[in-house]
């Protein structure tokens, strides 16, 4: 704009100078003559010059002067307008260029911003992708880190600190293994799925098979020094924790609007480990808990069956007689119930008793322990259930019948063994006699035959 203004001013100055020069020529000094002397000659020349006068009566010279001024003025205005137009065009072009530059800059900024955003997003995603994941710790990994000497020192310390407070000692014992297996997630120990998919032979080692021998020995030796009542409470607490965890997997209990809360914070792996060690070292504790287990409905049901089988299987590892007694008291009645026993449940129950009877030296062990603290391993009512399952009507035979036929002879022998002539044996004979009389008269050929043979055995004097 400054350059254009300078050009306009230069043009105006030039026009003004030309205007002054023209005025100087029109109004400059001239020779003065006496007008009267020339009046006649002027009158004579008037007709010739009349054509040169303008319409307004002015002389041609004067008209030329004003036309020159007007011409210069118009020329000056024209140049000024052209200069102004040129200046406006130049200003418009410069403004357009500036606007384009701003637009380009804005586009560049937007692109840079977008690129930055994309790069930032990529960096964020990349950072998330690089975020280290927590390593998955298996039961075996956690068990391998348990040091037997450290465990022994810990047990000595709590034994001295709590002295006769055995309940607290056992809870601290569970806490130790809870910390050891705290890093094992539920996905690494899906025990409900493992129990459903495993045979009893495999189930019995879950998860105790991962415990090192020296750690196991240190633990069971310490457990052996704890009194039976404290161990009974501890075993019941452990079973309650497992049942509560099972309920949390199943969601809402039928008939209840409340969702069952999961077990305490202790690792479920640890609960199974310490319970297995307690039952293997002190299996008799389970017999003391039998009334509670039979009467409390929270331990009943087909969904609890795998847990019950696992618990009894642990006791079998310590004492086959205790295992058979618990099987007869809890699981055998389920076999005669059509509503509470399906083929899968029946198979699981039979697997357990087959494992008991197939154990090394099972027969002599069970015969020698047929009577335990005044209680028979296979009482007369249980013998009747076994006999009916082994000798059903031909139309009632199932796949499991053959398995009962293989088990029955040993279980019958355990039921009828005893000291001849003893008071206890006389009571057993009388009870068995009554059941056999009833079974022999039901008209089922195989059942009647077996009942008659036992009936005769009851009548023969025992020497």
TrEMBL record:
Lineage, broadest ranks: Eukaryota, Viridiplantae, Streptophyta, Embryophyta, Tracheophyta
Role of this protein: Critical mediator, in cooperation with CASP4, of endoplasmic reticulum-stress induced apoptosis. Required or the activation of CASP4 following endoplasmic reticulum stress.
Location of this chain's protein in the cell: Endoplasmic reticulum membrane
Alphabetized, the UniProt keywords read: Apoptosis, Endoplasmic reticulum, Glycoprotein, Membrane, Transmembrane, Transmembrane helix
Q: Name one GO cellular component term.
A: endoplasmic reticulum membrane
Q: Where is the composition biased (Basic residues)?
A: 127-136
Superkingdom of this protein's organism? Eukaryota
Question: Membrane topology type, per the record?
Answer: Multi-pass membrane protein
Q: Where is region (Disordered) located?
A: 15-139
Q: What is the originating organism of this protein? A: Liquidambar formosana (Formosan gum)
Q: Where is the composition biased (Basic and acidic residues)?
A: 67-88
The main place the protein resides is endoplasmic reticulum
Q: What is this protein called?
A: Uncharacterized protein
Q: How does it assemble?
A: Constitutively interacts with CASP4; required for the localization of procaspase 4 to the ER.
Keyword Transmembrane in annotation? yes
Alphabetized PANTHER family for the sequence: TRANSMEMBRANE PROTEIN 214
